[in-house]
Automatic annotation (TrEMBL):
Keywords, sorted A to Z: Phosphoprotein
Organism taxonomic ancestry: Bacteria, Pseudomonadati, Pseudomonadota, Alphaproteobacteria, Rhodobacterales
Domain Response regulatory stretches: 24-137
Protein name (record): Response regulator
One of the GO biological process terms: phosphorelay signal transduction system
Segment forming the signal sequence: none
Residues modified as 4-aspartylphosphate: D73
Organism (species): Celeribacter baekdonensis B30
SUPFAM superfamilies linked: CheY-like
UniProt xrefs under SMART domains: REC (SM00448)
Length: 239
């Protein structure tokens, strides 16, 4: 019995098929759909995963334990993920790998300036590309030795998680104070739509963001988004 317990608690070594075995990953991501994609990528790679959906939640996690890898979405409901990247890059003891993540490729410079070791552009569905990104950023002393399998496997998150994201936005649109969240809503929907391959929603989200940035009327953009969101929630009601 003691031998069995010791084997369970012993550090696990990477294998060619699971090159991230033994690593713990904290994913800081507010989208349930994007989080589900990261969960599948981590589990298929052998890594343990925890999730935080905001800066506040991530900081609570980090006060309790220190992961090997932190993947931070740049757009979070309570601030920019660059803030957390900057904090982590100066923390002692630090984490082995800090990765910024966004659906906006232009955010890579922001993540790098904040101290990230690398950047993941959403959507990412390739298991091999994810593993290579993490492995390439690991310090030499902690990087697995030997060969690992280069896989072309693609992962596909559960669509229920995508509907959860749309329900979340529908709630924000109908609650008091929703007006103050419009920039966040546009950013959130843009990222979710890009991850899901929803070009219609992505275009609508970009239009809202552009019109607000330019100080132009955006009522029609908001009405369009509300209709698109509702249309994507409606199938959920079918029994």
């Amino acid at each position: 019995m003691t031998d069995d317990l010791e084997s369970l608690l012993a550090p696990q070594s990477p294998t060619p098929e699971r090159p991230l075995l033994g690593l713990t990953v904290l994913v800081v991501e507010d989208s349930r759909f994007a989080s589900e994609a990261m969960r599948l990528l981590c589990l298929r790679s052998g890594a343990r995963i925890r999730r935080a959906d905001s800066l506040q939640s991530a900081r609570k996690h980090l006060r309790v334990y220190r992961p090997n890898v932190v993947i931070v979405d740049l757009g979070l409901p309570d601030g920019s993920g660059a803030e957390l990247i900057d904090e982590l890059s100066h923390a002692r003891p630090g984490v082995d790998v800090i990765l910024g993540m966004s659906g906006d490729s232009g955010a890579e410079a922001l993540a790098s300036a904040a101290g990230a070791n690398g950047f993941i552009e959403k959507p990412i569905s390739s298991l091999g590309a994810f593993q290579e990104k993490v492995l390439s950023c690991l310090p030499t002393g902690t990087r697995p030795t030997g060969l690992h399998v280069i896989t072309d496997e693609e992962i596909w998150p559960d669509k229920i998680a995508l509907q959860d994201d749309f329900v979340h936005i529908a709630d924000l649109l109908t609650t008091d104070g929703g007006e103050d969240m419009l920039d966040y809503i546009a950013q959130f929907l843009s990222g979710v739509a890009r991850t899901a391959g929803d070009a219609e929603m992505e275009t609508a989200a970009h239009s809202l963001a552009d019109h607000r940035e330019q100080g132009l009327p955006y009522g029609s953009d908001l009405a369009r988004i509300a209709g698109l969101v509702q249309a994507r929630i409606e199938p959920r009601k079918v029994v």
